[in-house]
Prior knowledge:
Layout: H1 3-13, E1 35-40, H2 50-56, H3 58-72, E2 76-81, H4 86-96, E3 102-106, E4 110-111, H5 116-124, E5 139-143, H6 144-156, E6 162-169, E7 175-180, H7 185-191, E8 203-207, E9 214-216, E10 228-233, H8 237-242, H9 246-256, H10 262-265, H11 268-271, H12 278-287, H13 294-297, H14 307-312, H15 319-332, E11 354-355, H16 356-362, E12 374-378, E13 383-387, E14 397-398, E15 405-406, E16 411-414, E17 424-425, E18 430-435, E19 439-443
Parallel strand pairs: 1-2, 1-5, 2-3, 6-10, 7-12
Antiparallel strand pairs: 4-11, 6-7, 8-9, 8-10, 13-19, 14-16, 15-18, 16-17, 18-19
The structure holds iron/sulfur cluster (2 copies).
Amino acid sequence: MELNKLKDIIRSSGAVGAGGAGFPTYAKLDPRATTIILNCAECEPLLKLHRQVMEHYAREILTALQFVADAVKAEEVIIAIKPSYKSAVEAINAEIGEFPGFRIGFLPEVYPAGDEVVATYEVTGKVVPAGKLPIDVGVTVFNVETMLNVYNAVTSGMPVVDKYITVTGAVKNPVTLKVPVGIAFSELIRLAGGAAIENTENYVLISGGPMTGALASPADVVTKTTNAVLVLPEEHYVVLKKKCNPSVEMKRAMASCCQCRMCTDLCPRFLLGHPIEPNAFMRSASSGVTSDVTPYLNTYFCCSCGLCEMYSCFQSLSPRSLMDKCKAELRKNCVPAPKVETAPVNPQRSGRYVPTSRLLSRLKLSEYNNPAPLSDTLVGANRVKLMLRQHVGVPALPVVAEGQAVARGQMVARVDDTKLGCPVHSPIDGTVKRITEQYILIEK
Ligand code: SF4
Ligand code: SF4
């Protein structure tokens, strides 16, 4: 299919990266790409979504990759996956023979193998320079569920209205569900059997994985980028880390950062030659040094994987959170990222891998590392709250009115063609009950 036609179909379907920041998929279709990578790393502990979707829909996902590879005229497609996802690997091997130019690229069982800069290096040997994107070295990386959405859009015109979600942690029946976008987290907890905590009032929700996810509430709703909901006791290590207060953390850094450098020595971006050194930032920020602003500006090269604060620092300090705050301030004040050189890959890199099993243990999550089997029956919902800003790009603007009847798959909000963004579609047949600047509420 011709590139612009495929882009139009994908844009109209509302497909975005089904996890992370959710970059609109049509905007990633770039003829500079010579290599397409399917990212099936799923390196966040406890999540069991991508490997199962891959296992169930290998043929559809490889077919979608073929659509994309043909449209951009890519030379190769690499399925980046860990050897331990045996069922998914078997499913891929059963189909891949029919897709010339496709191969499996095995990733190490480490965190964060799914960081697209890390995954690109692991399966192609190419280093994405600091401050650049994979496309700058001829690579485009796609998410597993995104490719399933592309397949549905191209073959049946189906827009993105449903989402796969792993509901796990301290729940009675960890599960991976197919749910309508806009369903409330409280409903997901109920479908997973409820919280498995003595005092069931005392649990905390995290939207996403334990490393990069954010604290959430039962009233929060699924968006096109939500890939997991974790339930944890409120006194759990991961919860306490996520509740850290930056001003308290700065005082703790002033009192206890011993400049051991573990945060830097294990940083996955530093090890690939990017100029990010969390220990240097902690030294300057905690002592108020401003004569050299390099450690502050270089926070732009941190990908917020969280390894430094969730794993590396034995003082349990919070470099990632403090650097996130610094980055936000720099952006607010329109300070541009510096132009930098990328150093050679650290020769000790592979010796400094953080195995997923060790990370699980350090996060005190081993007891929650249970299967979360995929149920492919779409969960019903009587009400959905569709957020108008769900991902990178401008928010969508409603094209329906309160009281209007809508059908499943009907567009309810759109984005001007000249802007980066995607339309929103109704996941249920129902009536528009309320429209605000943030969301559209639809009830059956
Ligand atoms: S690992 Fe912790 S104590 Fe060591 S330099 Fe980094 S922030 Fe400081
Ligand atoms: S969060 Fe920490 S470990 Fe991860 S890239 Fe940033 S500085 Fe490095």
